[in-house]
Amino acid sequence: MEITQETVNDVAVISLKGRLNVTTTAELEKIFDALLSEGRTKILVECRELEYISSAGLRVLLTAAKQFKKISGEIALSSLSQNVKQVFEISGFTSIFKIYSSQDEAVKSM
């Protein structure tokens, strides 16, 4: 799993590449914790190169969404592959997160 981070306008963009599962979630948790401690409120998780997400990965996203909601923040997702999007639909996470078709669309909307 490769995780890169950048800021576009005032949105923190976290790009995921590879597989988000129980062995790779710790790094993403650390990034969310750092952004939370910085007081960042607009977070975009770019999933264009995310190949797979497990229940552990979903848990990390849900926990982070709850934490950011406490400070009036939001986490959105963009560029989900069909397989990853299907996991979000089956788990009901499409009602929790705003999902955009591209990073540009997400940044403009946020």
Describe the structure.
The structure is a single chain. This protein is α/β, with parallel strands linked by helices and 110 residues long. Helices cover 42% and strands 34% of the residues. The chain has one domain (2-109): STAS domain (Transcription Regulator spoIIAA, 2-Layer Sandwich). Strand 3, helix 2 and strand 4 (74-78) form a beta-alpha-beta unit. The model has no long low-confidence stretch (mean pLDDT 95).
Structural class comes to: alpha/beta
Architecture, according to CATH? 2-Layer Sandwich
CATH level 3 topology: Transcription Regulator spoIIAA
Query: Shape from CA axes?
Result: globular
Share of helical residues: 40-55%
Instruction: Going across the biggest sheet, name each strand in turn.
Output: 1-2-3-4-5
Supply the number of helical segments: 4
List the keywords.
single chain, 110 residues, alpha/beta, Transcription Regulator spoIIAA, five-stranded mixed beta sheet, 4 helices, 42% helix
Brief rundown of the structure:
With 110 residues, the protein is an alpha/beta fold.
Topology:
Elements: E1 2-8, E2 11-20, H1 25-37, E3 42-53, H2 55-70, E4 74-78, H3 82-91, E5 98-100, H4 103-109
Parallel strand pairs: 2-3, 3-4, 4-5
Antiparallel strand pairs: 1-2
